[in-house]
Amino acid sequence: MALFTRRATLAVPLGAILMPLAPRLALAAPAIGAAAPGFSAPDQDGQTRSLADYRGKVVVLEWTNHDCPFVKKHYGSNNMQALQREAAAKGIVWLSVASSPQGEQGHVTPEQAKALTSERSAAPAAVLLDPQSRIARAYGATTTPHMYVIDAEGVLRYMGGIDSIASNRVDDVPKAEPLAKNAMLAVAEGRQVAQAVTRNYGCAIKYAPAA
């Protein structure tokens, strides 16, 4: 496995990479087949985005931390950008969510979020700024990346990993089963998601204290 940065190594113990983190953090996760938790948050341009605004469209949520080596794997390989563009071409709303509080790895200002989108040629519909970790807490998100797919009726249909190989190696991307992509396409096409809950992996999200 490629070397981690020191910060990322501290954030993600080896065991945490290889298993879902929700039980370890005692976060309540939403239920597949139930209404996805509602949210409202500002995006990189200061516009408030709410889940309710997208009723009638499939929505993908991608938790992100630009300094995380697992996130870098998927952006550095152009895998994440390709998924974002495929989503947009199919009328799917892709929302990247930055939930790190100020002072923690992954925290971004609106200006930094816009710069990162440009530098990486990323194509989300918006980057949601969640420095109080409210959206992350509502969804039980624990790692970056952590992926969720919500159908056009606002029902949660997928939560888990972006793919099946829990590594930060770019050369593993084409070898892995694209779990989130498969779920996204199934929901968009009105098919049942074959694997609705999968193992997520990545850098642990640093939560802001609960309000």
Q: Could you give the topology of this structure?
A:
Elements: H1 6-11, H2 14-17, H3 22-25, E1 40-42, E2 48-50, E3 59-63, H4 69-76, H5 79-89, E4 93-98, H6 110-119, E5 126-129, H7 134-139, E6 143-144, E7 147-150, E8 156-160, H8 179-188, E9 203-204
Parallel strand pairs: 3-4, 4-5
Antiparallel strand pairs: 1-2, 3-7, 6-9, 7-8
Q: How would you sum up this structure, described in words?
A:
There is one protein chain. The protein is an alpha/beta fold and about 210 residues long. The strands form three sheets. It has a five-stranded mixed beta sheet. A hairpin with a 5-residue loop joins β1 and β2. The longest helix is centred in the middle third of the chain and has 11 residues.
Q: Which characteristics define this entry?
A:
211 residues; alpha/beta; five-stranded mixed β-sheet; two-stranded antiparallel ribbon; globular; disordered N terminus
User: Multimeric state of these chains?
Assistant: single chain
Q: What's the pLDDT, averaged over the residues? A: 89
The unreliable regions are 1-25
Largest sheet: 5 strands, mixed
